[in-house]
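Service request form, structural biology core

Requester: graduate student, group of Dr. S.
Request type: structure prediction, single chain
Budget code: on file
Notes: please return the result as structure tokens.

Sequence provided:
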Amino acid sequence: MTTYDAHYPDLAGKVAVVTGGSRGLGAESARALARNGALVVVSGRDESAIGAVLDDIRRAEGLAIGCPADVTDATALARLRDVTQREFGPADILLAFAAGGRARPGPIHTTTEADWRSTVDGSLTSTFLTLKTFLPDMADRGSGSVLTMASLAARRAATGAPAAYIAAKAGVVALTKEAAAQYGPRNVRINCLSPSTVRTEQIERVMPEEFRERVTALHPLRRLGLPADVAAVTLFLASSASSWLTGLTVDVDGGRTLV
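Core staff response, request fulfilled:
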């Protein structure tokens, strides 16, 4: 597992909630926050995957708990908030990284209404509900750092991603900007990450090596991303080192949006 050694002392003791934290970018970001002394709440749907992330954090002497939640369900998110407050206190950092849906690549007319709705709900409605659940307390306390998750697909056309996913992630970008404008006066910062292809467990499993090489060649830095690349930017934006940054969409993409 590749990690970077960035250290942000102000993260120590902060309470961080990570949705989509059981695998991939969320899991690596959860581990990175814990290495920096944050109290981490790892959320996802797969309890065994959450347990594996908690084991990693605890082996490194970090502090973390797990709380499964379906982020398309407002009641489940309210429970996640309540468990966080009961076990660690109110959230200082929120990573709204969870995404889902059944849509597949192909022409728009081949996308079923059910697949469209599941994907928009899984990536956009879930982000809205997560912000709706956690922002009021941050605004009342006058502090907080929130990160949402978009994608290269939201930033340029003809990526081969499903149309529903593209639309949902573009919605996340717009939602992030609006939320940043609304909550900035309450000292709550809200930024968005927009990764290109990252070598997560899923990419390693489903993308053939030959295709992976072709995708790599599309990036000016001539490599795919690593979860650690995204986690490094996450730490910076979660910390006070970025205290004058809000409403940004950061392309963590090896230069892919340039070409």
